[in-house]
Amino acid sequence: MTETTPYDADRARFTRQALARLVLCDHAADVADGAAGLVATGNDPDSGPGGRVSQAFQLIELAEHALASAVIYERERGSSWAEIAQYLGISPAEAEERFAVNLDGWNTAFNVPYRLDDTGRKRIPQLPTAAYDPAWACDRLDTWARNRLILVNDEHPVSSGLVKAAPEKDFPSVTP
Predict the structure, then answer these.
(1) CA distances (Å), 156 to each of 53, 142, 162, in order?
(2) How far is CA 38 from its chain centroid?
């Protein structure tokens, strides 16, 4: 599958490290939004028995996605398994084994960016959405951060810190 999409040019503007960071940002925003849902008490009567436990458990699942994304980001930026493992309280070999599937999936997605659906007609991206369509992710996450992070005085609080693959003048303008 070597066909191109409108997102390929946008993705090429970023390094793999920057794309991994975007995915981590996206997962972190999901965790924050999930946690925010547990703060207000006004809708507690609308939640059935065990409902808040369900929300808290979903938060664990979201945090696990964020953790896997953080490991991928750290590997992309050159962190060793020993450096990662020290924060997880496990051995480097355990850390590598625990996240091998996530890292393999990330690496494979760059080599085989799409798979066909069951009908064989529709291409399904293998990269997480934030890495597949980074222009959309930058817009969404910059807006998310501006609206939620106090004392952030940056028009592009997420995208301004991402490492570009090459100067933007080298790329043609792409309109979504």
Answers:
(1) 35, 5, 10
(2) 22
Q: What's the pTM? A: 0.86
What are the distances in angstroms from CA 168 to CA 131, 139, 157, 171, 176? Answer: 18, 17, 18, 5, 16
Alpha carbon distance, N-terminus to C-terminus of the chain: 22
- Judge contact between 165 and 13, C-beta under 8 A: yes
For residue 168, which of 160, 20, 176 has the smallest C-alpha distance?
160
Segment among 11-20, 59-68, 160-169 with least mean pLDDT: 160-169
Q: In angstroms, rounded to a whole number, what is the distance separating the alpha carbons of residues 158 and 167? A: 18
d(CA 134, CA 18): 9
Bigger pLDDT: 4 or 58? 58
